[in-house]
From TrEMBL:
Name of the featured protein: NAD(P)/FAD-dependent oxidoreductase
Transmembrane segments: none
SUPFAM superfamilies on file: FAD/NAD(P)-binding domain (SSF51905), FAD/NAD-linked reductases, dimerisation (C-terminal) domain (SSF55424)
Family as reported in the entry's similarity comment: Belongs to the class-I pyridine nucleotide-disulfide oxidoreductase family.
Reported cofactor(s): FAD
One Pfam assignment: Pyr_redox_dim
Pyridine nucleotide-disulphide oxidoreductase dimerisation domain location: 352-457
Domain FAD/NAD(P)-binding span(s) in chain numbering: 6-314
Keywords: FAD, Flavoprotein, NAD
InterPro entries: Class-I_Pyr_Nuc-Dis_Oxidored (IPR050151), FAD/NAD-bd_sf (IPR036188), FAD/NAD-binding_dom (IPR023753), FAD/NAD-linked_Rdtase_dimer_sf (IPR016156), Pyr_nuc-diS_OxRdtase (IPR001100), Pyr_nucl-diS_OxRdtase_dimer (IPR004099)
Length: 468
């Protein structure tokens, strides 16, 4: 069988959906090729189910920080609520949305087969699709498994297994202290598991400001998570229905072992070799999403496969721009590629927001102090505890911290990190300030409402304006 369409998107996660949607909005026809569930990792195995597993425990902990209150929860109800957010791993609603948006959905494994050509191996038989305008690769990322002796001889959990678990293990081992490892350690501890978290580096959440990882590790330990930093896993071995973790001379038995040691672009089987690229490597793109090293302005990529900011919201942002770029090029429209222009992903380079949904939350936007200094900026850093009227109302003994990173050469904010209960909703203000390059003297006139946690902005600006 053979088909022809303007734009073929390989991969129907949130990124691929946006690329196809914005191509259709630009007046083109679009097809998504997806082998699993339309909506992808974020909808069914990552963002949504993991946050559903975390939210109830966070809410109960917040209530317990207020005097005269009691709260508890049923783990089974948490799992049931998680199931509702994943639509019980049924994507009929997503497919209905795509078709209502004018997007054709084809089930099967799609791979490149030469210029503007995609071969699909699906339940309806083989299909060859020719793209009149563009092919967009949005195949996401896959987990990285570390070279630990014995790891391939035991049963392990991936993040998918953890977020779709039907029961809470009595003992959970977590290998890796990044975002996934930290969040799921806390989720399962609050759901009743005894959790051991091993991170070979000196702190959890290594890409963030050091104080963020320190505070999250302290909070995990305070709740009973056995956090072990600077501990490489020497090996694992089966022990009946359990798994034994070997750390030096110590042997720790767990019922499940979650391997959360990072992800890499999923390009092994996309057919890159048919267009002169190397399988298994991230796709190098320019800021319009155009893949480098392929002639003809027809091959694009967005999301995790590019190895840029491997976050759902950043991937969707890139996909929106890429879909718009393809539409503009199809009618010969001149692209606006100035910084912050309509057709470039400028935000990928220093204006990325991210939230770690632990308790305390970590909310960051832009550059860390180390990143700003490495970029050669004239940096001034302001550190303050979050101790304002709004935070004291939010919780007794509220304990939070904030860091502002300022480029003194331009007099603008380039980085912000908040750590504390309920700080995530403050993040967009920082993102707007960074993207808008709002001068520090102008931010002084952005008055935070009282009494809210956002009043920490005033305290940071006061400290910044104080000489010395």
């Amino acid at each position: 069988m053979a088909r022809e369409v303007d734009v073929v998107v390989i991969g129907g996660g949130a990124v691929g959906e946006n690329a196809a949607d914005y191509a259709v909005r630009s007046g083109l026809s679009a097809m998504i090729v997806e082998a699993e569930l339309l909506g992808g990792e974020c909808s069914y195995w990552a963002c949504m189910p993991s946050k559903a597993l975390l939210r109830t425990g966070h809410a109960v902990a917040a209530v317990q920080r207020l005097p005269g209150t009691t709260a508890d929860f049923d783990p089974a109800a948490v799992l049931a609520r998680r199931d509702r957010f994943t639509s019980n791993w049924n994507d009929e609603g997503q497919v209905e949305w795509a078709r209502s948006a004018g997007i054709d959905v084809v089930r099967g494994v799609g791979r490149l087969a030469g210029e503007r050509t995609v071969e699909v191996d699906g339940p309806a038989g083989p299909l060859t699709v020719t793209a009149r305008r563009a092919v967009v690769v949005c195949t996401g990322s896959v987990p990285v498994r570390p070279p630990v002796p014995g790891l391939d001889t035991v049963r392990t959990w991936s993040s998918r297994d953890a977020t779709s678990a039907k029961e809470i293990p009595a003992r959970l081992g977590v290998l890796g202290g990044g975002v996934v490892g930290s969040e799921l350690s806390q989720a399962f501890q609050r759901l009743g598991a005894q959790v051991t978290l091993l991170e070979q580096g000196p702190r959890v959440l290594p890409p963030f400001e050091p104080f963020a990882g320190e505070r999250v590790a302290a909070a995990l330990r305070a709740r009973g998570v056995d956090v072990r930093l600077g501990h490489a896993l020497d090996g694992v071995e089966p022990a009946g229905d359990a798994v034994v973790i070997c750390v030096g001379d110590e042997r720790i038995a767990v019922d499940e072992l979650l391997v959360a040691t990072g992800r890499r672009p999923n390009t092994d089987s996309v057919g890159l070799e048919t267009v002169g690229l190397r399988p298994g490597e991230r796709l190098e793109i320019d800021d319009t999403g155009l893949v480098q090293g392929v002639d003809g302005q027809w091959l694009y990529a967005a999301g995790d496969v590019t190895g840029r900011a491997m976050l759902t919201h950043q991937g969707k942002y890139a996909a929106r721009i890429t879909g718009t770029v393809i539409g503009a090029r199809s009618i010969g429209e001149e692209l606006d590629t100035r910084p912050w222009g309509e057709h470039v992903t400028t935000a990928d380079h220093g204006a990325v927001p991210q939230v770690v949904f632990t308790d305390p939350e970590v909310a960051s936007a832009g550059l860390t102090e180390a990143q700003a200094r490495a970029a050669g900026l004239d940096v001034r850093v302001v550190d303050l505890p979050i101790a304002v009227g709004g935070s004291s109302l939010q919780a007794d003994g509220y304990d939070g911290a904030a860091r502002m990173v300022v480029d003194e050469g331009r007099g603008v904010l380039v980085g912000m990190t908040f750590v504390g209960q309920d700080v995530a909703e403050m993040l967009h203000a920082a993102t707007v300030a960074i993207v808008g390059e709002v001068p520090m003297h102008r931010l002084w006139h952005a008055v935070p409402a009282y009494p809210t946690i956002s009043e920490v902005w005033l305290r940071l600006l006061e400290a910044y304006r104080t000489p010395g």
